Amino acid sequence: MRSLLLLILLLPLPLWAQTSPLAPHTAEYQVNYGEINLGGARFMLLPPEGDFYQYKLDSDLSLLVLSDKRHIRSEFTYQDGQLTPLRFSHQRTGTGPNFNEQIAFAKEQGKIFSRYKDEKSKLDYSGTLYDALMVQLQFRLDLAAGKEPLAYELVKDNEIDDYRFKIVGKERMTLDSGVYNTVKLEVVRDSTKRQTFVWMAPDLGWLPVRLTHFESGSKQLDIKLAKLSLGSEVNNQLAKTE
Fold first, then answer.
1. Residue 149: cis peptide before it, omega within 30 degrees of 0
2. Signal peptide location in the record (predicted)?
3. From CA 78, how far away is CA 51, in angstroms rounded?
4. What are 191's strand-pairing partners?
5. Structural contact between residues 29 and 41, judged by C-beta atoms closer than 8 angstroms
């Protein structure tokens, strides 16, 4: 179940034609394992306070007697097209061991303080780094700006990992939630046994509308956009949770 969540690391069109990746929004997704509906995941980008942003992910997945619930939070700043991480938290409950992850990014000190499954780590902060949630927003900003290469270093599990993407082509995607003009991308890996594809909609601020993951040619995971709310709708949802 944990690997499923990591891959989730990614309608009137005239209204959304100029949507920025950093516009406040809530995106809800249906998560399937093959043809089996596991549950859903909800991403929420809150209205900013100056250059300060908060991004949230809540998911609730289950399969027979197995369950997996996650609450992930990311805090970061934005300046000149670049996101800078501040704090990250990840709480997991369900079948098997529960765990928490906490990360504090001290850029001025050149250090990252991480705690994962009760193990502490202090990493060097050098170059451009992200947490496992807000990297999705930087990815979208870079696509909107036409930047290449699409390569990112992110901190997770007390380590620094790198992820790379390549553009495969364009595709018109029809889902229950709507029809989208998308750009298809693939996660670059050394092995061909695992393949992950993601379809991003430029008209929606490069929002991912679908993600599929294959193991040895067999589809294991299929995540589809179910609902998207923007602007005042996000404020209304936030007010209901406070």
1. yes
2. 1-17
3. 5
4. none
5. yes
Domains in the chain: boundaries: 2-10+19-241
Task: Write the DSSP string, the chain.
Answer: -HHHHHH-----HHHHTT--TTS-EEEEEEEEETTEEEEEEEEEEPPPBTTEEEEEEEEEEEETTEEEEEEEEEEEEEETTEEEEEEEEEEEEESS--EEEEEEEETTTTEEEEEETTEEEEEE--S--EETTTHHHHHHHHHHHT-S-EEEEEEETTEEEEEEEEEEEEEEEEETTEEEEEEEEEE--S-SSEEEEEEEEGGGTSEEEEEEEEETTEEEEEEEEEEEEETHHHHHHHHHH-
pTM: 0.88
CA distance 106 to 55: 19
In whole angstroms, give the CA distance from residue 14 to residue 186: 28
Residue type at 9? L
- CATH architecture label of 2-10+19-241: Clam (2.50)
Q: What is the pLDDT of residue 7?
A: 53
pLDDT of res. 34? 86
Query: Which long-range contacts link 14-18 to residues 24+ away (Cβ below 8 Å)?
Result: 15/230, 16/203, 16/204, 16/205, 16/230, 17/203
Cα–Cα distances in angstroms (integers) from residue 81 to residues 8, 33, 90, in the given order: 23, 35, 25
Confidence label for 240 from pLDDT (cuts 50, 70 and 90): low
